[in-house]
């Protein structure tokens, strides 16, 4: 047995509680369910238990919902490095600029965190078949972890999804389908499949456990900074599970005394061509409106209306954070700068956080001495089309020009 301190599930809107040992999706009111923990048991856990544990997200098993060790489905995910961006920081005048690089873990993106915990918990609850819509990376992660768990996965993604994520789904043995449209069109197909076949819906925030895997990024950040959290965390926001999970985890850590009362200011970054959260934040609203005709090179940000928009906005408001919309040209420029100056080939979504940091620093919202962590959510290797290569060809007898 693990030592999970999970106690129950609770609706994020109406507060209704649910038995975590039953298969649950959304609350009866239609809102996402959140995992709640016995804080007295968590408070009894000491940080020094981590010293001899393996460097994966499962080192935080008390904070996770999986009850039995044999239920854990893992590929070694978690404990990604925090890289000081010294050259870019020096050029900008930011003395404490860092990037947490999620591009080096299984499936190449942070999506494997949610898949590892979500699939593990689904396995523990006896689920055999799951279905989900995806812009690409989430589907690839859930397909791979489903294969490892011996579960069947049905994946529906837009026709313009990146080729590499398509390939990951296909090679994993998942039942892969394309839709002529965007992710919200894929969602319609998934909803009908769930109603018709009774499959488990693994869509963003329609099951309670993906968020628990994503929240481990906050645990790692806190531990890697010796439990002194940074001043600012900048996060690229599509469905928003990451920023919701980070805020949820920071609140849990505060409640049990693992971190001080200081809370990092959370920044939500979206593409200018699909920025429902930014528009809602600028207007002081608690929910977003559906974005019409979303267009961006950062496909993970192409979510016209996140189901958890009210949770994303709450995290921003409660931490005195902000929301920033970045043009595609800025995203690609930041991607090139990260690679050329720091050797980090970030995905477009991750690169958007650097562009946001630059803007907020120039505006004075970020101060020169503040500790700022950017989240790179995946490797740029999964988006080869974002880099245009032009190089001269040489004859075998030619010398390299100086």
Structural class: alpha/beta
Proportion of residues in helical segments: 25-40%
Oligomer classification: single chain
Radius of gyration: 21 Å
Q: Mind describing the biggest β-sheet?
A: 6 strands, mixed
Average per-residue pLDDT, rounded, comes to 96
Instruction: State the CATH architecture of the largest domain.
Output: 3-Layer(aba) Sandwich
Query: What's the total number of strands?
Result: 13
**Principal-axis shape:** globular
Strand content: 15-25%
CATH class of the largest domain: Alpha Beta
Order of helices and strands: EEEHEHEHEHEHEHEHHEHEHHEHHE
| Uncertain parts | none
Classify the fold: give the CATH topology of the largest domain: Rossmann fold
Number of domains: 2
| CA-CA gap between termini | 63 Å
Describe the structure.
This protein has about 400 residues and is of the alpha/beta class. The protein folds into 2 domains: about 160 residues, Rossmann fold, CATH 3.40.50.1100; about 190 residues, Rossmann fold. About 35% of the residues lie in helices and about 15% in strands. It has a 6-stranded mixed beta sheet, sandwiched between helices. Helix 5 links the parallel strand 7 and strand 8. Helix 3 runs parallel beside helix 4, helix 8 crosses helix 9 and helix 12 packs across helix 13.
């Amino acid at each position: 047995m693990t030592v999970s301190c999970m106690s129950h599930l609770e609706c994020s809107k109406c507060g209704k509680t649910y038995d975590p040992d039953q298969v649950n999706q959304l609350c009866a009111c239609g809102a996402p369910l959140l995992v709640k923990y016995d804080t007295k048991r968590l408070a009894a856990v000491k940080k020094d238990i981590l010293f001899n544990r393996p460097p994966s997200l499962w080192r935080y098993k008390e904070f996770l919902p999986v009850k039995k060790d044999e239920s854990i489905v893992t590929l070694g995910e978690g404990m990604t490095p925090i890289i000081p961006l010294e050259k870019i920081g020096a050029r900008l005048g930011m003395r404490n600029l860092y990037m947490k690089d999620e591009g080096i873990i299984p499936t190449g993106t942070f999506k494997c965190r949610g898949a590892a915990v979500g699939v593990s918990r689904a396995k523990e609850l006896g689920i055999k078949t799951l279905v989900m819509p995806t812009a690409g990376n989430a589907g690839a992660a859930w397909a791979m972890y489903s294969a490892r768990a011996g579960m069947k996965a049905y994946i529906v993604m837009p026709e313009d999804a990146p080729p590499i994520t398509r390939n990951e789904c296909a090679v994993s043995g998942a039942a892969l389908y394309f839709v002529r449209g965007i992710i919200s069109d894929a969602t319609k197909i998934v909803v009908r499949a769930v109603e018709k076949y009774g499959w488990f819906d693994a869509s963003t925030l329609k099951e309670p456990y993906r968020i628990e895997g994503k929240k481990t990024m906050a645990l790692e950040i806190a531990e890697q900074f010796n439990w002194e959290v940074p001043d600012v965390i900048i996060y690229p926001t599509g469905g928003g599970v990451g920023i919701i999970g980070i805020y949820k985890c920071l609140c849990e850590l505060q409640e049990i005394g693992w971190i001080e009362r200081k809370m990092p200011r959370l920044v939500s970054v979206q593409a200018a061509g699909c920025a429902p959260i930014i528009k809602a934040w600028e207007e002081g609203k608690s929910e977003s409106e559906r974005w019409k005709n979303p267009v961006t090179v950062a496909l993970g940000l192409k979510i016209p209306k996140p189901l958890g928009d009210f949770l994303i906005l709450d995290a921003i408001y409660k931490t005195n954070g902000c929301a920033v919309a970045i043009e595609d040209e800025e995203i690609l420029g930041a991607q090139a700068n990260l690679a050329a100056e720091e050797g980090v080939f970030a995905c477009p979504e991750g690169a958007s956080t650097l562009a946001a940091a630059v803007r907020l620093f120039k505006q004075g919202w970020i101060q020169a001495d503040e500790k700022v962590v950017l989240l790179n959510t995946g490797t740029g290797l999964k988006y080869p089309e974002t880099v245009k290569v032009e190089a001269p060809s040489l004859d075998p007898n030619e010398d390299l020009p100086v």
